[in-house]
């Protein structure tokens, strides 16, 4: 049995990673600001939910005790500087902070959900923060895997409108069209979650692009 800590385990992708790990009988812990998601599903009772801000490791550090694998699934596509929500902090610093904590705790594997592309209309800092965190994580003393998906669609997608989510679903289900989009190829959330979970269980490649994620997450 593997013990997982999913930072952002209540989110769109993170909660599916938690569900997969629970299904296979692993111990699963999650840290997020609002704690347990409002999902009426039996598997949620088998996750140990901690309500904490990633930037307050003093509150959640003990969740790393005995953890084998950390998945970092925190990010934002919109900023609110007054609340400390900037791309630099949330897409970059948060990952570096949790990775440093994981290294200090002796965790064997760290999986970082990065991104292949910048969503339209957002500052370049969205992606430069991700790349900065990728480089920092790669320097630390554990097995690491960075996943770089493009847009991710599926039920409960919180970032795009229903119309955009549906359009991605249609595009994603027509391989000749989807494959032409390269790094912007939309992927189903289940595929991304499976690739993330499998990487956390058995790290192989250290960097997974959109096609690698598609293949591993099948
Ligand atoms: N969805 C996509 O289309 C897509 C595409 C490419 C890459 N990605 C990457 O995949 C990762 C997950 O994306 P997602 O779509 O699942 O995002 P999401 O649904 O917004 O989930 C983010 C998770 O992080 C938590 N979180 C946010 N700020 C936090 C903080 N300061 N401390 C602790 N927890 C915090 C959120 O819960 P609370 O708000 O309760 O804290 C939530 O559990 C992100 O790194 C994102 O950049 C996503």
Task: From the structure above, extract its key features.
218 residues; alpha/beta; Rossmann fold; two-stranded parallel ribbon; globular; binds NADP nicotinamide-adenine-dinucleotide phosphate
Structural features, described:
- With 218 residues, this protein is of the alpha/beta class.
- It has a single domain (3-216), classed as 3-Layer(aba) Sandwich (Rossmann fold).
- The protein has helices at 14-23, 57-60, 87-105, 125-138, 162-172, 175-178, 189-201, 210-216; strands spanning 3-7, 27-32, 47-51, 69-72, 109-113, 143-147, 152-153, 187-188, 207-208.
- The strands form 2 sheets. A 7-stranded parallel beta sheet has the order 3-2-1-4-5-6-9, sandwiched between helices. Strands 7-8 form a two-stranded parallel ribbon.
- Helix 4 (125-138) links the parallel strand 5 and strand 6.
- The protein is globular, with a radius of gyration of 16 Å.
- Residues 8, 10-14, 31-34, 53-55, 73-75, 90, 94, 113, 115, 149, 151-152, 158-159 line the site of NADP nicotinamide-adenine-dinucleotide phosphate (NAP).
- NADP nicotinamide-adenine-dinucleotide phosphate binds at residues 8, 10-14, 31-34, 53-55, 73-75, 90, 94, 113, 115, 149, 151-152, 158-159.
Task: Describe, in short, the structure shown.
The chain is of the alpha/beta class and 218 residues long. Helix content is 38%, strand content 17%. Bound molecules: NADP nicotinamide-adenine-dinucleotide phosphate.
């Amino acid at each position: 049995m593997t013990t997982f800590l999913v930072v952002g385990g209540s989110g769109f992708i993170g909660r599916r990673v938690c569900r997969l790990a629970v299904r296979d009988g692993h111990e699963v812990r999650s840290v997020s600001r609002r704690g347990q998601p409002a999902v009426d599903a039996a598997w949620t009772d088998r996750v140990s939910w901690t309500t904490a801000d990633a930037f307050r490791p003093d509150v959640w550090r003990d969740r790393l005790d005995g953890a084998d694998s950390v998945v970092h699934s925190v990010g934002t596509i919109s900023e609110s500087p007054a609340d400390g929500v900037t791309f630099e902090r949330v897409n970059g610093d948060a990952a570096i902070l949790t990775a440093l904590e994981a290294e200090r705790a002796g965790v064997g594997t760290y999986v970082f959900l990065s991104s292949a592309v910048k969503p339209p209309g957002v500052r370049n800092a969205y992606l430069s923060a991700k790349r900065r965190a990728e480089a920092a994580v790669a320097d630390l003393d554990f097995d690491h895997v960075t996943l770089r998906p493009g847009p991710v669609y599926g039920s409960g997608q919180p970032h795009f409108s229903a119309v955009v989510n549906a359009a991605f679903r249609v595009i994603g289900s027509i391989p000749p069209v989807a494959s032409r989009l390269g790094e912007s190829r939309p992927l189903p959330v289940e595929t991304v979650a499976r690739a993330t979970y499998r990487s956390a269980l058995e790290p192989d490649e250290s960097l997974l692009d959109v096609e690698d994620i598609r293949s591993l997450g099948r």
